[in-house]
Structures are given as structure tokens and as C-alpha cells.
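@channel sequence for tomorrow's demo:
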Amino acid sequence: MYKNTKYILTLMVMLFVAGKSSAQFKLPHAQIFANVNYATPTNGGFKDAYKAGLGGEAGGGLGLGSTMLVGTLGYQTFANTNGNLAGNLRMTTIKAGIRQYIFLGRIFLLGNVGNAKMTYSKVGTSSNSLIYEYGAGVRLFGLELQATQTGWNQPIPAVSTSRAFNIKLGFSFKI
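C-alpha cells (generated this afternoon):
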């Protein structure tokens, strides 16, 4: 977990520095977006305990040039497998991060960190955990498509470290 966090923070700093290296003055801009999310577990314990999940998120961003600071609020649920006694996993997330647009303002790299509040449908356990996300996306004619990898820790020992691959599709508008 800490090794991945170090890589993510390094990537975010590199993207920020690359975005600020332009000598040209650029006007600030804002953006709002909303996505539906399909996620599939990618690591052993989490993959054994949960099936694919569905969710959604909404957010906004402020930026200068090709660099944008973003914030998102989201909800994600994963259906449990037959052997999982904890029940379905429900997560509410709040994340902040950075987007770096790299090709004609259409393709972007992203990195987010935040908090995930988790609850389970069959037990009274709930927990908060650091959540991180990194990936890439494309924005074209108001539509947005992202592919990301997300990771967090759960309070259930059998699936303590959880990672999921996400495909997100939604709308994105400059304001």
C-alpha cells in the first residue's frame, strides 16, 4: 500500500510540474462531470470475496492550462460471493486529485487520493480508509471515458488490501 502511494504521489508531482512548465499565460477554467462506474476486483482476496461492482461519481475541477485540480464524491457497491458472510460492500468516497491533459485537451492522466467509508450489508462493521486512484481518460464532445485502478484497505482480514479496475463513462462540461 505505502509503496503504491509513493508512486502515485510521485506521478502527481511530475504531472503538476509538467503542466506548469509552459511559459505561456493561460486563463483559468472550470469543469463539472458525472460518471457511472463498472468495477471489477483485481487482487486475490478481494476477487474471491466480491463480484463486479457498480457505482457513480460526480465532481468538478479548476485549472490553468492543461493542469486541473479536481474533487469527486462517489458511491460504489460490490456484490458478495456465496462464501462471504459480511455481505455486499458499499463505499462512499470523497477524493481530491489532479488531471493532466496531454493531447489537444482531450486525453488526460489522473491521480486521486481521499477517504472511503465502507459498510457491509450483513454485519454492523463500518470503516474509513485511505483510497487512491490512478489512470487515464479521454474527453470528447461532452462525453468522458476513464480507465482507472483503485486501491484501499478493508477492516475484514481476508480482504484487507483491495484493488479494482474501473471503467467510467459519463458527461463532462466546461463552465
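heads up for whoever presents: The beta strands are 28-41, 50-64, 67-80, 89-103, 107-120, 126-140, 143-153, 161-174.
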